[in-house]
Amino acid sequence: MELLCQALRWTADAAFQIFYYATKFVHPLLGFITYWFTGKNELQVVLEKNIPRQDRVLQVEAILRKWKAFDFENMSKCSLAEIYEIASTLCYENNLHNRKLKIRFKYCLEKIIGYEKLLKNVEDVRKIHYNPYDKAHEKQLLKLFSLLKPESQISAVDQRWVELGFQGKDPSTDFRGMGLLGLQQLIYLCETERQKSLAMLSRSLNPRHGYPFAIVGINMSFLTRELLLEGHLKSFFYAKSRCHLSMQELHDVYRYCFYRFDQLWAINKPENEMAFGEIRAQLKADLLSELREVDLGNRIKQFLEAEKMSDVLEVYDSEVMANAAALYDIAVKIDPFLAELSCVGERGFRLLKDCIENGLKMEKPDEDVVAQHLYHIFNLMDSFRHVKRRTICHRYFNHVCTILDSLPALTWMSVASNPVAFIQDVIEIATFYTNRILKEFPQKENGLHVQFVEQWLKALESLKAFVQKYYADGFTWKNVTPGLSTCDATDVELFDKPLPPPPPPANLSRLEKSVEDMHQKLFAQINKGLDITKGLRKVTPDMQMHKNPTLRTATPVCKPTVAAKPAHLTKNLPSAKQDTTRTPVLTCDDKKWFIENHVNNKDIKIEITDMKQVMYIYRCENCVIVVKGKLNSIALDSCKKTSLVFDNIVSSLEIINCQKMQIQTMGTMPTLVLQKTDGCMVYLSKEALNCEVVTSKTSEVNLLIPTEDGEYEERCVPEQFKTVWNGTALKTTPSEIA
Q: Which residue numbers delimit the C-CAP/cofactor C-like domain (predicted)?
């Protein structure tokens, strides 16, 4: 029996020796045979394969590890320039003269050494033990507590650390195994995914199915390091397009592991913490399966994008939408009209949220398609544009302008760069109207108007802060570059297919010669002087119509008939002149008169019964309007060839976008405002001689001043001005020719 056992041992030893020498000598022998028949070594064969980048890097690493001259331990200390120098030397020694193969080899070498550097950095951080007497270490520990429980403060040793999942009141003892790596990764999780980490902490405190949050976090650090040491993460990191690996990428893997553990724990619902080992083993098996299927990168990328989307939308809801919605509670206390107006603003903010959510899921469209993405916001702005025009004499006209003129801020996604400055410009426009509100309603309705202004500006400022935080350089659409690509970034067609040659040079000599000939002919004709007319044909009397009557009766030469366009090309085209007829309006709504869309109406007479009434005249053409009585104000907008006669005005008369107007006041008119108006005759009464006239972008404005003999003296309003610097300020005076 002993002899049999000894024979079996000898047989096993012999088999091991045979296997050892076979792997030691047969593999080089196969490489030599391959080189003998193909003229290529093993490295060249691998680099020429069109395989996924991670597979190529793994095969190149396996070849380099067989070379005794290649020292992996010291390679992690090399700089990028030294790596390129080593790669160039190895390319020369292995006859890699093809540019494409050189780039592939350098890429593989950067990935391999980058992984070794990452491994060394992780070990360096792990070996730093937590020191309770080190102020920097204590500061990091307290930062972790402030992220999870910002409402309270704590010391380094406190019983409340148990609430975060530590084993006792002194959490420093739990970091013995992973050092500062476990603490840093917990802080990274809580900083990047604040809401998610708080949700997981809340689930971990479940009395029946809870788990120690901090201890699990430290164990996830151990699992991440274990996957890194065993080389399971090589395929994941080698598949990334970035050559330089950082600790942040490892921290993202850690976040994903913690997230998956929380999911598995919630699904299994273990009765106690003793099931931790089983769930951890299940998690590792799932991760290894995803790594074998080269699917971990896509899973992590989708997880990070989903977390970013949820974080962005949660911040938008809590900080932006909350301020926009709070405006309604203030507006409804003032007037139902303002309540409806605040709903318009809130609806705009809600539409912007939908646009952000959809934009995070879609590829970046072309610039001309971005406006279509914001279609509902632009449609909202267009649909309420007439409200501003109809409420020009309304008591809350400045409130309307504040809301409606602020809506363009919601279109910041269409701004390619620096949308924060765009929003700030809109806020300044809104501030112009809010200042009017504060001046007109300083303490009315118990200061509710002041609260209305402050709340709306707060909503706009919160939108600006939101964009500054997440999209300071413009909106970032969904990144469609896959996390794990099966094609190599270095496999570019430029290496195999050279760029097309430039177009042949133009035959400039022929062009210059033809131009020179034309110049010579022109100057030769000019030099003829009076003889230049000798080349013209003589017109005989029979060719002249006034001397040859037969030419008058001849049929005129008609232009060739142009065929009509096919029906399918013209049936949907609008006519050149469309019908623009609008329904005339003459009505009084409460204290507001509306006169709109009248054409050729010479008999419009209005009797004013209350001096608080106001009048708005819009799109009237070739009309005569007579207003009897005393009213507050009159506004004319987009009228043509219209005459207005009125008795008295308390505040002002405004003329905007009008042409060829005639105005006559029979009584008082304190202020006359003209904007973008061409042609206006204003007949003043003796009571209106102290009228203040304000003009901007106007022309042909004449004031007719009454004289003692009952006639009018015409004076024109200056249109041209001269501005000079007098040493301290700009001085503007009407030009002498004006």
A: 574-719
